[in-house]
Amino acid sequence: MNSRSFRMILVCLGVMAGGSLSAQRITSMMNAGRVFGDHPDQVQLVHLAEKPGEDVISPQHLFVRFGPYSLLSVEGKTEEGMPRKLKFSAGQMRIWFTFDKGQSSVRSTNKYTSHLTLFMLDREGNPAGSNVAFYELRSDWGERWRFAGDPNVDAFGSFISFTNVEGTEFRRESLGVSVLKDGEGAIRALHTPVRSFVVKRDEGLNFSVYEYDASDMMVTEDPEDISPQEGVEPVSVNEFRKITQTKVSIWYKSASSPDNEAPSYFSFNEKKRSWEYEKAEAE
C-alpha cells in the first residue's frame, strides 16, 4: 500500500500472523478538518466496507463522524422501551454498550476504550432510564460527546455537541459544517470551514470523492447549492471501486503527484471471514 494513500485514507486493517494485513471491515476515513478549537479530533467522511456483496462499495455506506465517535446502530429494548444495546464507532474500532434494567449509565468493557462511560440523559441533562433525550459519552478526563437520544425521531443518533475538559461547548449548528444528501439519503457533499468533499457516482455503485479547499467553493444563497468555483481542480480524488463481490480497490490520487499513486486492493478471505490487503496489483 503506498504510504501517502495510507495516510490520507486511513484503512482499518491490523497486522495478522505472517505479516499480512487483515480486518473484519475496511474503514476509510477522510479528514475534513478541525472544528473544535484546539482539539485535535476532526470531522471525517467515513466509508465502511464490511460484508462482501453487490453493494460492498456504495455511497450509502458513507457517513460523517464528528470527532472520534459516532452511533452506528441499536438492538433490542430495555423494559423502559429504550434501545438496550448500542454500537458506536470509536476511531477504527467498534464498541458496544448494553443497558440492563434500571441502568442509566454503562462503562465500556473494551480495554482500549475503558475510559468511556455512556449516559442516558433527559432534556435537562439528568440521568434517565426512559424518555431519553440524549446519549452522552464521557471520558474519565472530562470530555463529553452528546448524541440525539429519542428513537422516535429521524435525528436519532446524530451528533449534538462536544464539550472539552475546560467546559467549552461546541454545538453542531455553530461548527459551520454542512452535510448534503441525495434523494436516496446518501451523502453527496460534506463542507467544513477547512475542506469540502464532493461525492460523484460512477458506474453502478462505484463512486469518487473529490477533495477541495473550502476557499475554492462557491457560496450561494441556496444552502443546497455548494460547488467548486469554475476552473478549480480538486486537491485529491479518492476512487472507491468494486472489482468483484469479494474484491475492492481504493485509490487516492493527489493533484500534486498523480503519477506516484497506485490503487490499494483488498480481497475477502471466505475461510477467515476477513478482508486482506493484496500486495500484488490487480490486472
**What's the number of extended β-strand segments?**
25
Helical fraction equals under 10%
The domain tally reads 2
Number of DSSP helical runs: 1
Q: What's the mean pLDDT score?
A: 86
Question: How large a portion of the residues is in β-strands, by DSSP E?
Answer: over 45%
Ends apart, CA distance between termini: 16 Å
The ordered string of helix (H) and strand (E) elements is: HEEEEEEEEEEEEEEEEEEEEEEEEE
CA-based shape: globular
Biggest sheet, open or closed, and with what strands and sense?
Answer: 10 strands, antiparallel
| Oligomerization category of the chains in this entry | single chain
Radius of gyration: 20 Å
* Neighbour order of strands in the largest sheet: 2-3-25-24-23-22-19-18-17-16
Structure explained in plain terms:
The chain folds into two domains: 3-66 and 176-278, no CATH class; 69-173, no CATH class. The chain contains one helix and 25 strands. It has one helix spanning 3-8; strands at 10-11, 14-15, 21-23, 26-34, 42-49, 62-66, 69-77, 83-90, 93-98, 105-107, 116-121, 134-139, 144-148, 159-163, 169-171, 178-181, 187-191, 195-201, 207-213, 217-218, 227-228, 236-244, 247-254, 264-269, 274-278. It has a ten-stranded antiparallel beta sheet with strand order 2-3-25-24-23-22-19-18-17-16. Strands 10-11-12-13-14-15 form a six-stranded antiparallel beta sheet, with no helix packed on it. The longest helix is centred in the N-terminal third of the chain and has 6 residues, at 3-8. The protein starts with a helix and ends in a 5-residue tail after the last strand. Residues 1-10 and 13-20 have low confidence and may be disordered.
